[in-house]
Structure prediction request, 87 residues.
Amino acid sequence: MNELTEQIDPVNRAPKLLDLVRGKIRLRHLSLSTERTYVEWIRRFILFHDKRHPKDMGGAEIESFLTHWTKPLRGRGEQRPSSPVAR
Prediction:
């Protein structure tokens, strides 16, 4: 199936991971800010690991991602944002 067919016929396309996450969050009636925060952290996790799907990763990848975010930044006294949604 090519890109044009996917745009024309989205019914036959499998839902994307972040869309599934959003759906589960909405089923639990969590707040919009919670949804945005969860989706942003998942997006960061995927991008950190060069766009690999989380189903193809395990504990080592989770540990490296969390270790990355717990290390203090070196240099000009920069700080990481406490929430990825707070912009």
Remarks:
- The two ends are 38 Å apart (CA to CA).
